[in-house]
Structures are given as structure tokens and as C-alpha cells.
Amino acid sequence: MADVGQDEDFEKARKKAMNIGAKDVIIEDLRKEFVDNYMLPAVQMGLIYESRYYLGTSLARPCISVGIVNAAKKLGAKYISHGATGKGNDQVRFELSVYSLWPEGKIIAPWRIPEFFERFQGRSDLIEFAKNEKIPVAATPKEPWSTDENIMHISYESGVLEDPGVVAPSGIYKMTRDLNRTEDYPSTIDIIFDKGLPVSIVIPSGHDKPMELSDSLTIVQTLNKLGGQHGVGRIDIVENRFLGLKSRGLYETPAGTILHAAHLDLEAFALDREVLRMKKYLQEKMSDFVYNGFWFSPEATYTRKCLELSQQGVSGKVTVQIYKGNVTILSRKSSTSLYNKDLVSMDVAGGFSPEDSTGFININAIRLKEYARFTEQTKF
């Protein structure tokens, strides 16, 4: 079992595993590994799948896979088994990661074995089986949806959520408050970045000295708590799975939402315009690689290097306000920004010659004039 920050009683899980036949249970704390090597680099790269999903589950799978493969090698195992369904993304993510890290390894996937899936059509059958065999499970007939939780997010899918036209049940969310239960005052946070990576946060404490945090795990935990109190980071979306199916998912990503918003603002402030546009193209490709399970692929490694290079000048401070589900940028500062106050000012020339704009406009108008002339001639 990988501890990637989920709210779980691991000792209880250990006893459960031993009671139903496990020979041994390995529980490994991968929270720091997940935050430092997957979550925060994803913020640095700006990874968002289909413009909305911050990839909380997708990023955890390669991290967990490293732990699984290391355990298998240490034990001299030849097989790895997983419980991912035959219709979902996780089977692809786990297996592609395992094969990348351990080419000679073999996979047992019960959900793809006819003997299994012909007996158990879905979660309802498994819940009934677990009940009969006295195996404790979190899912119930009243709450049959599945959840995936880590320090970055919680996702909810399946069960009643499979109908996109049905409003999600009240009380389903665990990390964030409903907006009518959020704090009635805003919280202000300074987020400091170094080469695109969040390295510290500063929170006014109401006393002379504000609270400054620089430990990555503590930063994420703190932003999750604050974001959750203000209802930040909820989305309810339909996404395109790698297998070609559309699926509905509910996601809570408080810290990730805050960090992505701050990073996006600093990036636009610091980067050259054309580098920013090229970076946007590459981050969409990288988001697809991560979502589809290709974190360890050569194309992902290459793209990651390019994205990291783009962040050399993305350093500085962004001040954000979180309130009633919103993340609002208040200000930003950077010693590496390309922003030139004198050049852009409407009060001073700053080295800019206004008459140059005439030629700039005339050159750009040539194409438009020619298109207008052509369309006028070809009208019927």
C-alpha cells in the first residue's frame, strides 16, 4: 500500500489484508516523493488535462508504480496484480509504468479475466460478495461510487454519477466545504516560486510576524486546508478516457487549484510571448502523456525537459486571495520578468516611438485588404 496522502487507517487496512489471506503487507510512505517529483513538477509544467482536470489520480499512478516495482524486485516476485477495471484509465497507467520500469515483469488483471468478469458484472456484485464473505469495504449500495484519494485531490466516479444529467448527491465532497458553509472572510497568501516550482508560502497570521512555510509537504497540506475552508477546487466534468469512452468525474483539488492559478499568472508575467505559446502547446501534449499513462516514456521525458527549460525565468512572488470558491490574483513581483514599466507606460515614451505603429499596422493590414478585395470580387 502506498501512502500518497489519503485519509486511511493503514493499521486497519493491514489487519484486513492479513485476515483475507495476504502473506505480508508493505505500507510505504510516498507522500514526499509524490509531492516533490510529481505534483509540484506538474504545477511547474502547467499540466491540466482538457483544460480542467489537474491530473491528481494520473500523477499518483507512476509514483505508486515505482513503489510496487521496487517491492516486487526486492521480494523476487515475477507478477504484479492490480484491481483496476477493464474500462478505465488506471489499468493502462499502472501497466505502462510497470513495463517501463520492469520490462520483464508480468501483470495479472482480474477485471480482464473472463472467469472473473463473467461472475462479477460490476461494483454491485462485488459489494454483495464482500458482504457475504464479511469483507469490509467503503462502498455501499447507498453510496456505490468509487473514490481515489491522495494529498493532491479526491476523485469520485461510477454509481449514480454515471448519469451526467443527475446532480451529484449532497455531502459527497470530503476535502472542500459547500459554498454556503465556507468562511465569510477572505484569506490572503503569498506564494513564492523558483524556476516555476512553488518553494514557500507566506500567510499573514494577525500578529507581527507572518507564518512562512517552505517544506513542500506542509505547503500542500496547508493550502488544502485553507482552500477546503473556502470551497476552492471543485469541478464536475465529463472527460475523454484514453480507451475512447467518455466518463463523468468529480474532483476536489484545493492546493493544486491555488498553485496552478498563481503559477499561470507569474508565467504570463515573466515569459517571452512566443516561448509562452510554445510552452502551452507542449504542456497540452505532456498533459495527454500523463493522463494516458506515459509518464516514463521517451516522449514524456523529452517534453518534460523542454518545459523545465521554459521555466528558468519564472521566479517571484504572487499574492492571491481565496474566498467563496474563487482564487483571485492580487499582485505579482519578479526580478526575472520581461515586464518593462517604462516601456508600457501611457505617461512616458520610455523609448517607444508611436510613429512606428503606423508601419506595423500597415504591414499587418496588407493581408486583410487582399482578402477583402478577393471576397468582393468573388461574390455571386
UniProtKB/TrEMBL annotation:
Pfam families the record matches: Arginosuc_syn_C, Arginosuc_synth
Catalytic activity: L-citrulline + L-aspartate + ATP = 2-(N(omega)-L-arginino)succinate + AMP + diphosphate + H(+)
One term under GO cellular component: cytoplasm
Arginosuccinate synthase-like N-terminal domain segment(s): 1-136
A single MF term (Gene Ontology): ATP binding
This protein's pathway: Nitrogen metabolism; urea cycle; (N(omega)-L-arginino)succinate from L-aspartate and L-citrulline: step 1/1; Amino-acid biosynthesis; L-arginine biosynthesis; L-arginine from L-ornithine and carbamoyl phosphate: step 2/3
Transmembrane portions of the chain: none
Residues annotated as domain Arginosuccinate synthase C-terminal: 145-371
Keyword terms of this UniProt record: Amino-acid biosynthesis, Arginine biosynthesis, ATP-binding, Ligase, Nucleotide-binding, Urea cycle
PROSITE patterns: ARGININOSUCCIN_SYN_2
The enzyme's E.C. designation: 6.3.4.5
GO biological process terms held by the UniProt record: argininosuccinate metabolic process; L-arginine biosynthetic process; urea cycle
Electron transport among keywords: no
Xref: PANTHER family: ARGININOSUCCINATE SYNTHASE (PTHR11587)
Subunit note: Homotetramer.
Annotated protein name in UniProt: Argininosuccinate synthase
Native organism: Papilio xuthus
